[in-house]
Amino acid sequence: MGAQPSIGCIDDVRHGWVQGWAREGGRDGPARLLARHPGAAPVEVLADGYRPDLAAAGLGEGRHAFRFRLDTPGFDPARLELRFADGTPVRPSAACLAAWQESHAAPAPADLEALLESPVTRVLHWEMTRQCNLRCTYCAVSQPNYRGEDMDLGDFDALVATLRARRVQTLVVNGHGETTGIPGWHHRILALAAAGFRLAIISNFARLLREEELDAMARIASIQVSVDTHRPEVLRAVRRRVDLGNILLNMNGVRARAEALGLPQPVFAWSCVMSDKVALDFADYLRFGIAAGVRAFDVCNLSRYPDLPGVEMPEHATTLPDAELLRFADVLREGRALAARKGVTLTIQAGLLDTLRLELARRGLPAEVAA
Ligand code: SF4
């Protein structure tokens, strides 16, 4: 018998709680999922709760329910991405969406006041655009049904005044899209820096930034650049239209402008979406990044979207054959030791490590996975 598909459903989203069920590949064990929503940190979800209706429906022993909190301003279940480790999505039911839309049709003024009850917001993610100049093969942006849009920044000054009044300390100036793609983006950054916010950004650094853009970028304290591998040809295959040379030139350009302007040096981090294409080179990638002055590395679990025409899609690292999977476990441990020795931060998403542990156990392969 072939493997059964992973299935599930989000059936309630109220008061910041998301509830539903998910069953992975017809198995009775707990299912692990990852939830993402613009403006919110990703949430790892475990579906292992008992629900009698699931048992009655013949879904094993009925232990597939999940419930997690995702309380973010602008929450919209239609923008919530919940996926199994292999990328299979779990979507809200029509009844769930209809109930949510009804309850949010016209919030009463009193409800809006309640939303703003806390007078302080320490960290705020400001998604000025959902558009991107790249089409990375593993990204939702590359899917044919993705619709990106820019935020209307007509009220920019009023928004800045509100954020100041709420004493926002750190402003992360991107969400899903590429902020440097917004015409005149650097003027916005200069205004936010002048208003006294500590700024952070994730950017792809794919195109060479002009001098005035470098001046703005130099005012951002924490800059995370999306770089999956130090091998230019692999990077181009996975992220398309990306040149590692541009990334390094931009990084150095920002540092040089910070120096010239008498600003503190921004801290650079790299983020890597782990896949079969880059897994075995990971320790060398860290060495290369450290040599380029990168102080922190974030490793994310791959969400597998449907195939794109003419593209060799990156697969989850756990699809590697046995010998390479064992080598990958070694490489992660080597990376951990290297990061500790060099005093850089290495954050590996727990979902990736858990999936690797499960896969090694499933194949009966003896390997220790880096904590
Ligand atoms: S740069 Fe980021 S947002 Fe743009 S396509 Fe690549 S992964 Fe997606």
From TrEMBL:
InterPro entries named among the record's database cross-references: Aldolase_TIM (IPR013785), Radical_SAM_PqqE_MftC-like (IPR050377), rSAM (IPR007197), rSAM_sf (IPR058240)
Question: Does the keyword field hold Cytoplasm?
Answer: no
Would the keyword Oxidoreductase turn up in this protein's UniProt record?
no
Task: Specify the Radical SAM core domain's residue ranges.
Answer: 118-342
Cofactor(s) it depends on: [4Fe-4S] cluster
Superkingdom in the source lineage: Bacteria
Q: Which PROSITE patterns match?
A: RADICAL_SAM (PS51918)
Q: Which UniProt keywords apply?
A: Iron, Iron-sulfur, Metal-binding, S-adenosyl-L-methionine
Q: What is this protein called?
A: Radical SAM protein
**What organism does the record attribute this protein to?**
Paracraurococcus lichenis
Question: Highest lineage ranks of the organism?
Answer: Bacteria, Pseudomonadati, Pseudomonadota, Alphaproteobacteria, Acetobacterales
